[in-house]
Amino acid sequence: MSARVGVRVRVPAKVNVQLSVGAARPDGFHDLANIFLAVGLHDEVTVTPADELRVTCEGPDADQVPLDRTNLAARAALALAARHGIDPRVHIHIAKDIPVAGGMAGGSADGAGALLACDVLWQLNSSQRELLDICAELGSDVPFSLLGGAALGVGRGEQLTPLDVGGTFHWVFAVADGGLSTPAVFREFDRLAEAEGAGLHAPVADPALLAALRKGDVAALSSTLSNDLQRAALSLRPSLADTLAAGTAAGAVAALVSGSGPTTAFLTEDQETATQVAKALTASGTCRTARVAQSPAAGATVV
Ligand code: C5P
Predict the structure, then answer these.
(1) How is 118-150 classified by DSSP, letter by letter?
(2) How many whole angstroms from 169 Cα to the centroid of ligand 1?
(3) Which end of the chain is more exposed for a tag (fewer CB within 10 A), N or C?
(4) What was the pLDDT predicted at 197?
(5) How many C-beta atoms lie closer than 10 Å to residue 44's C-beta?
(6) Which one of 135, 156, 227 would you pick to mutate in the ligand 1 pocket, going by the greatest count of ligand atoms within 8 A of its CB?
C-alpha cells in the first residue's frame, strides 16, 4: 500500500434560518437559539506533511485570509496536535469558495476541515464527540461546520442537536463588497437593545420553523425565517436594504441577512427561480456577485 501523501476535506457554508439572540453573558458571548442549515458552497482544505506548520490559500478572496496562527485551520491543527503530543508539521492549503467574513461560517469551515484532515493524516481515529469538543473550543460555529445538515445550536451556538430536513431548499446568496466583523455586529445589537430599553427575550427555537424544515415546506419556511442580528447588520451597512429589496423584487419568496452578514440570503421556490434571482441581483449593482446553492449539504467530508 502506498503512503498517503495528503488528505483533502470538503466543508460546507451555512445559513442561519433562525438566529434568536438573548442577552450578553458575563463571558461576553450571547445566549442563542440558532438554527443552522448547511448550504452547498464549499471550501476544500488539504493537509500534507511538511517541515513546519504553514497555511496557504487560493480563491478570489484569498488576499483577505490570514495565513498566520490566527487562521482557524492552523488553530485546529495546533489544538489536535497538542492533545496527542504530536508536532503539527503540516502544510494546510485552503481552496476558498465561501465568502470571507460574510456571515456564512467560512473561517469555521476551514477550522473543521483542517481538524478532520489532520485527524485522518495522523491516523488518530478520534470519535466525532472528541472532534466536536475541539471544534467548540475553536469557535461557536465550528461544530456545525463539522456536522453539516441542519441543527439547532444553543448556548453560544456550539451545543448542537441535529434536525431532520424533509426536502431540498433553493437559495441565492448575494455577496457584498467587504466583510463585517461578527463581534462588531453583536456590539451593535447590544447598543440598539440598550438604546430601546426593551428587555431581551430568552432565545428559543420556533416550532413552526422546525416543522417547516421537517416537511421541506418552502412556503412555511419563508414565513418563519428570522435573524435578530439583521437590524444590527443593516445599521452598520444600510446599503444591504437595497440588496434585500432587489432580491425580493426579482422573485425570492423571502430574504434575510445571513448570520452576522453582510452576505444576504434569498429563498426561492425552485432552481429556475434561483437562477433568475441571481441574475437580477448581479445586474442590480447592489452586490458584488450572487451565488446559487441548495441545502441541506453534508458536513466535513474526506474526498
Ligand atoms: O465563537 P466565535 O469566536 O466565532 O465568536 C466570534 C465573536 O462573536 C465573539 O468574540 C463574540 O463577540 C461574538 N459572539 C457572541 N455570542 C455568540 C457567538 C459569538 O457575542 N453566541
Answers:
(1) HHHHTT----HHHHHHHHHHH-TTHHHHHHBSE
(2) 27
(3) N
(4) 79
(5) 20
(6) 156
**pLDDT for 91-112, tens place per residue?**
999 999 999 989 999 999 999 9
- What average pLDDT does the structure give for the chain? 96
CA–CA separation, 234 vs 262, rounded Å? 9
**Is residue 182 within a helix (H) or strand (E), and if so which, with residue range?**
helix 182-196
Q: Provide CB contacts within 8 A for 73, sequence distance 6+.
A: 45, 55, 92, 94, 110, 111, 113, 114
Provide the CA 258 distance to its chain's centre, in angstroms. Answer: 8
Given a cut of 60, is residue 3 above it in pLDDT?
A: no
| Percent of the chain predicted with pLDDT > 70 | 98
Indicate if 215 belongs to the active site: no
- pLDDT bin (cut points 50, 70, 90) of residue 201 is confident
Q: Residue 267: count other Cβ atoms within 10 Å of its Cβ.
A: 25
Catalytic hit among 14, 31, 96, 110 = 14
Single-letter amino acid code for the residue at 127: S
Residue with the smallest CA separation from ligand 1 atom 7 is: 183
Q: What is the mean pLDDT of residues 286-291?
A: 96
H or E stretch at 211: helix 207-215
Separation of alpha carbons 220 and 24, rounded Å: 31
Per-residue model confidence (pLDDT) at position 177? 92
Grid coordinates given for 244? 434585500
Tell me the pLDDT band of 68, cut-offs 50, 70 and 90: very high
pTM for the model: 0.96
Cα of 194 vs centre of ligand 1, distance in Å, is 19
| Nearest protein CA to atom 11 of ligand 1, as residue | 183
